[in-house]
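Record type: monomer structure entry
Structure origin: computed from sequence
Chain ID: A
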Amino acid sequence: MKKDQAILAQYLPDRPFHQSGNALLVPMQIDEVADIVRTLMRAKLPLITLFATDERAAEGAFKVRYVFGVPRETRFIVPTLALPKTSFPSLAQEFPQLALYEREIMSMFGLTPEGHPDPRSLILHEENWPKSTYPLRKDFAWNTRLPETHAGDYVFNKIDGEGVYEIPVGPVHAGIIEPGHFRFSVAGEEIVSLEARLGWVHKGVEKLFENLPLDKQVVLSERISGDSAFSHSLSLCQALETLTRAKIPARAQYLRLVFAELERITMHIFDIGNIAGNGTGFSFMAAHGFRMVENLRRMHQSLSGNRFLRGINVPGGVTKDISPEKASELLSMLEALEQDFREMVEVGEGSASLAGRLRGTGVLPPQVVLDYGAVGIAARCNNIAKDARIEYPYAAYRDIVPEIQLTEGGDVNARFQLRIKEMYASLALIRDALAKMPSGSIASKLPELPAEAMGVSLVEGWRGEIAYIVKVRDGSIERVKVRDPSFIHWQLFSHLSSTDMVPDFPLINKSFNLSYTGNDL
């Protein structure tokens, strides 16, 4: 309790609070919201997420919760507003990173962010979603079948000017990627403005979390974004373990590190091949990158029984161990992979045409990263040190601390080079973890959920920070809030500062490799 008081006194002195799980809940009145949020923002505390809960049955109010992290502590400061009406003050004009969260709350709960500069719907499409229907309210049944409807039309931003014309792309694309609509405003060949509209694969994930049994919730988390199945399920499990104060065996913590880093190197190699190969036409990189990824997927299958590392995490630990024989097999495979990878990268670095396509394309300015709270690759390619493994250590990252990798420039090349550096760093982490692997059990029984609490969990997925907030009432899960880094990063595309052309967009898109389904939920 003294530690909690000291943490809060540093940022919000003399404020009453309630410790719940690893969250410090700070009640506030509607006229205090701006000052409290402004104070925490100016203290440089990272905003993790902003979300709402429907607590009308128990407390007669909706609540809006701003979750701020305290790096290198195991606590999160959560200013909480109980709404006396169905509106709350928008702070998006002052803090752009709040804009999408406020629109999400408006769409899902029907709570109005008063003064929002862009109060259009988010995720739910008015072309086929009934007006005044809010799926995350408790009185909306998860299995509701909605009638076909047309409640309105989405109005895209309009850019006027001599010679400016629009190019609509998607939501259905020529390849086998997920659906997303992109509206380009172009003058000559240069992109003047780019607006993305997502939500085409919205599937009611957060509503499902409220109704599924616990074991099915873990399965659901693995399918939010299939290329990050292990990291998503780990974040959910850690939130539950925080709520129950479960003791996780040391061996399970080390195994979690190994599997997390295997997921990271798999997707980094995939992206390196995809950026250089399919993004620029340098097919050598694509062919060899995808070959290495297939070898890694087969190793995943051998270690865990699943190519995408599903079915490993459970609340309390893991289900799959790595025997000494399998560890030796993995190390041999990674040694050959590293040599293969080095040779591929050397060929790529010797190509002047590849460098010409990557450098200066899709430049993300550092100020945009800061304004929108970007994380992961988007931050580190601008020399901004953000990594949940270091800021909020979990699993075995408390014992084996990663060396953060950074690049400069914020362009496609910076993101490309960052993946290469992180690939080598991840190999070192896996080798270190296997060498120091403690003996013992790999899972413990999860204690019963408390009567009421809130657990916050962050995991550094290969894209960036994945956040899960689990809220319990009367011993049952009342709300699960999920925030994939893609939710933050899709909005960055309209703020790239390069003089890019429409044909550059596929390359830029691949350099971020954001998840549509992880955004749409």
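Annotation 1: The radius of gyration is 23 Å.
Annotation 2: The longest strand covers residues 47-55.
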